[in-house]
Design brief:
This is ABC transporter permease. This protein has 320 residues and is mainly α. Helix content is 80%, strand content 0%. The radius of gyration is 25 Å and the shape is flat.
């Protein structure tokens, strides 16, 4: 059997399982048990297709850069097919685990509500808290690199604050700043300040002594040493903190909304819909949060590659 025929057969088996799980009536595995045999065959076919695509990428064929995203996309499709097949095939209760198709319908049917929640949680609380926490962490680290007193004082405090659970901070912030987005932004500031401070401080300390000697030889001023030597060397550490904080900020804002919020927001929606047993809406809100976190992280990763094109870590990754 030639390679192209094998690929066609694998694709047809995967499409057959896709048709089965999305277009057959609920409980089809209970009614016709032999159909479950097609599921492992479809997963095996998908694995073979992903292996073929990976070989094409390794061989660096024409347009391999466009083939590379197909591997994770196909893997995600297999996960969705497995999830849809098990929940719909065995007619699992929606309260325990809704099928992806039901979550998608809830997502499409409630776009205005989900958009209002997204604006309240992400565009107000997360972005404001993320900006204030990251900028203040960077500024304080820039001061602390010149002061042993600040370093010795703030590093133990950072470890102490990092150990405080968010469920303990959130009610206090709600009492201090009210029920609106400001209290959630305050929680995000607390969660993002110290990761940025510690990473920036570590990056500013990582400067090569030879570079310092060179700047000293040139009689560079302290501002010139910071801008041309310390800051560029600290950028990989700063981007690590930015990416870490992008997901922590969203988690912090959502959890904080469990302790008091106006009748809008992702955390409010999740807690309310769980009480109403409307689990499709809960999963649709989780989908929005996951998409927002992934897009934020991906955008920062792309920005890091664009800004740090000269850094050995980025150049070695691009060479692969």
């Amino acid at each position: 059997m030639t390679h192209s025929i094998k690929t066609s057969v694998y694709s047809l088996l995967l499409l057959a399982q896709l048709y089965l799980c999305f277009f057959f009536s609920a409980g089809f595995y209970k009614n016709q048990q032999w159909l479950i045999l097609l599921l492992p065959v479809a997963i095996f076919s998908a694995a073979k297709l992903m292996s073929t695509l990976t070989q094409l990428i390794d061989a660096k064929v024409v347009n391999s850069r466009y083939i590379k995203p197909l591997v994770p996309a196909l893997f995600a499709l297999v996960v969705l097919i497995f999830w849809q097949s098990m929940t719909k095939g065995f007619d699992v209760s929606k309260i325990l685990l809704p099928a992806p198709s039901e979550i998608f319908v809830a997502f499409i049917s409630n776009i205005p509500t989900l958009w209002a929640d997204f604006k309240q949680t992400y565009m107000k609380a997360v972005l404001a808290g993320y900006f204030i926490g990251c900028v203040s962490g960077f500024v304080v680290a820039s001061w602390a690199i010149k002061s042993r007193f600040l370093q010795n004082s703030l590093l133990p405090l950072g470890n102490f604050v990092s150990a405080i659970p968010i469920v303990g901070i959130a009610p206090i912030m709600v009492m201090w700043f009210g029920f609106d987005w400001q209290s959630k932004a305050a929680v995000v500031v607390v969660m993002t300040f110290f990761p940025m401070f510690i990473n920036t401080l570590a990056g500013l300390k990582s400067v090569d002594p030879l570079h310092n000697d060179l700047m000293h030889t040139y009689a560079a001023k302290s501002t010139q040493r910071f801008v041309k030597n310390q800051f560029p060397q600290a950028l990989p550490f700063i981007f690590n903190a930015l990416k870490l904080n992008s997901t922590m900020a969203l988690i912090g804002a959502i959890v904080a909304e469990f302790f008091g919020t106006p009748i809008v927001g992702m955390g409010f929606r999740i807690s309310t819909e769980v009480g109403r047993m409307n689990m499709e809406m809960v999963w649709a809100t989780i989908l929005v949060a996951a998409l927002a976190g992934s897009i934020s992280y991906g955008a920062l990763a792309l920005l890091e590659r664009a800004v740090l094109f000269w850094h050995p870590s980025v150049r070695s990754a691009q060479a692969k």
